[in-house]
Amino acid sequence: MAPKKQKDATIKSRGNLVEDDNLDWLKPRTLLKPEDQEDVPEADLEEEVGRILTTINPQWVADQVAYHYGQGKFVVTPRPTFGKAYPLYIYQGTAIRKDSDEAKAQIAAGYGMVGFDDAGPKRAKVKKSAAEEEEEEEPEPEPAGGDETKAEEEQAAEEEKPEGEAEAPAEDQAPAEAAPAEGEAPAADEEEEGKEEGEGKKEDGAFLDEIIDIKPRIKKLANQFNFCERAALTYNYPRRSVDTQTVPPPRANFGATALQCIIFDYYQEDYARKMKEKEDERPKRLRKKKAKHVKTEQQIHDEKLAQRIREAWAILERLVNQNIYDDIAQDYRYWDDPSDEFREGMGSLLPLWKFQFEPMRCHAVCDVQWNPHYQDLFAVAYGSLDFTNQQKIGCLCLYSIKNPAYPEYSVITESPVICLDVYKEIPYLVCVGLYDGNVCVYNAQLSLESSYQYKSDSVRDKHCNIVWEIRWGPRLIDGEPSFFSISGDGRVVQWAVMPGELQATTIITLTSNVPPIPGPDGTMLTVNSCGSCVCFHPDKPEIFMVGTEDGMIHTCSLKYNRNYVRSMQGHHMPVYRINYNYFNNSIYASCSGDWRVKIWEDGRDEPLFMFELGSPVGDVKWAPYSSTVFAACTADGKVYVFDLNVDKYRPICVQAVVSKKTKKLTRVDFNVKLPVIVCGDTKGTCHVLKLSPNLRVMCKPPKKAQGIDQRTLQILKLDKLLSLVRDPPFQTGVVDEKFDDD
Amino acid sequence: MAEEPAAPGIVTEKVVHTYPLIRHSDMSEEMRVEAVELSVTACEKFSNNNELAARMVKETMDKKFGPAFHVVVGESYGFEITYECTTICYLYFGGNQAICIWKCS
C-alpha cells in the first residue's frame, strides 16, 4: 500500500508543477543546476523505488547488558520504551492513559467508569489515524475506516470488559450491553451520550441495585477545568547590532629590579656626575677657550697644510706657464725695441701677454687697475658696455703677470662690474661699482668662496643708476676707510666702511640746467645731470672733479653740497676720465666720447692742449714716471702715447692693439714701476704692452745741478713746457693749429 | 694598620643620599614633577609603612591624572609591567627606596 501512496504523491506533486507552469506569468523561473550533476535518464526517474518501513529500530541493541554490582553479575538491561530517543523535556500532562496503572487505579476507585467507556475508543481511534497520517503522508480519510473503527471499538470494549470484570465481576453483563448501544450511535454528542449512558447506568443501576449504587457519577477525568488559552504575539522588530572599536592607547613594557645595591650604585653614579658638572661649571670660560684653542690648532694645521699644497700647486702652475711663455717673459724683461734709436721721437708698444678668463669671454673689461703694492698684479672688472644686451653677471679678477693662464683671484658678482678701485693702504681691499647701482667691497684675502665683504643696502641707499666710477678716499675721523662713488643718477656718495655695513652719505647731487619737468601728477621733477667720472685732487682731499654725461666738468668740494666750486663745459659728449698729473697738481687730462683728449690747468677755462683721436676715447692716464707722458685708448682699438715734451701736437706712438671691427679698447693703466701698460677690450681680454725706450725717456739733469732728483726734474720739465703754452697768444694757437692739423 | 687610614677615608666618602633620583621616566615634565613631589611627600609621611605610602600616591595620582595608577614602594623587588606610554616613573628615594608609578587601565 505504501508504494501506491507514494506514487499518488508523486503524481500530485507533478500536478502541482504543472500548475506552477501555468503560473509562469508570475516570474520566470530557471532552475539552477550544479555543473557536476549527474544526468539521469527519464526512465530512471520514472522508476518506482519501494521503501519499506518497519517498526523495528535497527539501532536498538537487542541484548544490552550492564554489570550489576549488587548481584555481582551482568544483567540484561531492560529495553527502553522510547528506544534510542532521549527525552529533552518532560511535561507532566493531566491526561493519563486508560490502560496505565494509575488509570486502572482510578477506575478501580470508581472515577469515570462509564465516561471511559465511550471516551476510550474515540481517543484510540484518533490516535491511530494520526499514526496512519504519518505513515502515508496523506490526510485522506479512509472510506473503509468505518468498519475498522467499529471493530476496534468492539475490541476496546472487549478489552475494557476484563478490567471491569476484574473489579466488579458481578456487573458483567451491563457494560457488555451498553457498549453495543454506544457503537450504534457514535455521532451523538458526548454529553448526551453521557446522559444517556448515565440514564442507562441508572437504569442499569436500578436493574442491578445492590451491586452498583456505591459508584458516584463523575463525568470526566482528563481536563477538569474548562478553559481555553488565548495569546497574541506582538511584532518583533529585527535586531541590528553596530559596534566600533577604538585604538587602544599605546602601551609599553618596562622591567627593572630594585635592590639596595642597585639603588646605592645609581646614587653614587649620579652623585659623581653632579660633582663633575660642578667642577665643569667653575672654569667654564677657561675650558671653553682651551677647547677652542685646541680645535683651532688642528684647524690651523690643516689649513697650513692646505695652504702649502696650494702654494706648491701655484708655483708649479707658474713654472709651467713660464715655460710656455718663456719668450714673452724674456721680451718683457730684456727686449727693447732697437729701432727706437733710429727714429727720434717715436716709440712703439710691444704686446706681451693676453689675459683672458674663460667664463668672461663675452664680457667687456670695464675697468683695469694695477695694484699699488704688488707691481705684477692688476685688477680687472668684467662688466658689459653693450647696454642693449646686458650680461647678467659680472666678475672681479686679479691677474698676476706671473701666471697669464688663470686669474689669481676671481669672484663672480650678481651684476656686471663697471668700475673698481684698489685701496692703497690695504692693497687687498677692492671696492667695485656695479651695473645695478650697488657698491661692494671685496677682500681678496678671504677664500674664494666668500663673496663680498661689504655691500650697499639694495633697498635703502644704493644708487639708482650705473655706478660709473669709484674711488677710495681718505680715512674718516674715526679711522674708517671711505670711498666715493659717482653714478648715472647724478649723486656722489661717500661710503664709510663700518664694521659689518656700509654707511652712505650723499655728498652732492649734480644739478643740470634743464628746467624742472612736470610730472604725471602735477609735481615738478628736477632732472639731475648724470655723472660719469670722478677724480680727487691729489693734495686737497676735499676737492674733486666730476665729469658728466653732457660733457660738463664740475669742480666740487666735500664741504659744499649745494654748489660747484667751478663748472665748465669741457666736452660735448660724456666725459670718460679725468686724471691728475702725478707731478703737477694743477694739471689734469680729460677724455670724452667726442673723440678728444684735453689737458687742463686748474682755474683756466680753456684747455692747454687738445688732441683729437678720431674715435671715442675711453681712457686717458698720465704716466707715473714722466710728467709729460700720457696714454689714451680709443674705441677703434688703438693706444696713443703722447709725450708733450717731445711732440706737443702728435702722439709719439699710435698702435692698434685690437682689431677695430670686432673689439674696442676700454681702459688703460700704467704700471707704477714697470714699463708696461695694460689695456682692456670689450671681449674680455687684457693686453699687457711694453713701452719702448723712446716712450719712457727720463730727464737728464743739467750739468750745473747734477744732484737734482728725477722728480724735481720732471716738475721743472713740465713747468717749462707750461710756461710756453700758458702764453696767451700761444694758447689759442695751439688749439687752432691742432684743429687745422686734423 | 694599613686598613685604619682607609676606613676613615670611606667614612668621609660615605654620603647619605636622600634626594629623589629618577631612574626611568617617560612622563611629561609637569606630570613627572608632580609624581616625584608626591612620592617624596608620601614616603616621608609614611616612612615606616610602604603600603600606606603607595596607597597615598596612587590615590592622589588617580585624582589628578585619571584612574588606574599603580604604585609600588619597596626596598627590593623586581617587576615587569605593561604601562600606557608616557605614564611611567621609576625613581629612587631616600637612598634605599624604589618607587614605581605607572598607569594601566
Give a written overview of the molecule:
Chain A: One of its GO terms (biological process) is outer dynein arm assembly. Chain A: Its main location: cytoplasm. Chain A: One of its GO terms (molecular function) is dynein heavy chain binding. Chain A: This is Dynein intermediate chain 2, ciliary. The complex is a heterodimer of chains A (742) and B (105). By secondary structure, chain A is an alpha+beta fold. Among the domains of chain A are: 101-139 and 150-212, no CATH class; 345-741, Methylamine Dehydrogenase, Chain H. Chain A has 13 helices and 33 strands. Chain A has a four-stranded antiparallel β-sheet, with helices on one face. A four-stranded antiparallel β-sheet of chain A has the order 5-6-7-8, with no helix packed on it. A four-stranded antiparallel β-sheet of chain A has the order 9-10-11-12, with no helix packed on it. The longest helix of chain A has 41 residues, at 284-324. Chain A is elongated and about 190 Å long. Chain B is of the alpha+beta class and 105 residues long. Chain B has one domain (18-103): Protein Inhibitor Of Neuronal Nitric Oxide Synthase (2-Layer Sandwich). Chain B has helices at 3-13, 29-45, 50-65; strands at residues 21-25, 69-74, 77-84, 89-93, 97-103. Chain B has a four-stranded antiparallel β-sheet, with helices on one face. In chain B, helix 2 packs antiparallel against helix 3 (50-65). Chain B is globular. Mean pLDDT of chain B is 85; it is low at 1-12. At the A-B interface, strand 3 and helix 9 of A face strand 1, strand 3 and strand 5 of B.
